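Appendix B. Raw example, untouched.
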Amino acid sequence: MIIFVFALVAIASPIVGYARRRAVRRGIDTAAVSPLKPLSAYDLIPTLVAQSIEADRPILFSTGAGALGDGSTITTLAGTGLMYYITQRVTIGATPPLFLTSDTSVIPLGYDILRRAYFSQGQRGRIGVNNVRWYPSGIVGDRSLVFAAMLTATMSSDDPAGAVFVGRFNEELALPLLDAQRRGVPSIAGSDTIIGQAVAYAMADGALIGENLYSAGGYLGEKATDRGTLGAQDALRGVVIFIIIVIAVNTASDGQLVTALFNLIGR
């Protein structure tokens, strides 16, 4: 399966890259070459960026209880990856973003992501020690009302222009999202837990559910490999759906479908 995914990305990336270069030569909008399905979370990003720059207020990011080296590693990287692409867009503003975490292993990653985003736009020395903050969760586990309370306190003290909570969250996510609603702050949220996804879907202005959580590069990146990855995801999704249908039909027919397919291939 891993080899199949890499093969899909390797095939889709040059095709997308060629189509985009051809569109540029013909003066065609590159967005029309590889159209993406609309997602409210990614559609909301220009609003967050514009408000941050115009109002001179930071965007608040957090990966919650996400850490490095455990089951939440991939989601933590997805959340900081989204932070990287959004930070690139606010570098022309005067106020850098804020990043909050409850796990000490993510602190160096937060600094690195913010600094790389500014360096990629030719900006240096804009990230200070106060832009990445660690607050203890108060408990062992990933359900911390203490950390959620610190998120709401930060929203009160720093008055962010937008809030992006993507990482390991559970029901405590409702607390900062409710505070964002009361303050009129647009919010994006996503989690790798069922409870966190339910809270994000019900309360966030833009929710990232399922594989959409890991699609920031495809929607916000400029490289052909980013769009190629999305194409590989769509193809892989189709393969998985086909396999599920075959298994379901085969189970309902007491194994006769697979037997018939093998007989057909044998002929």
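End of appendix B.
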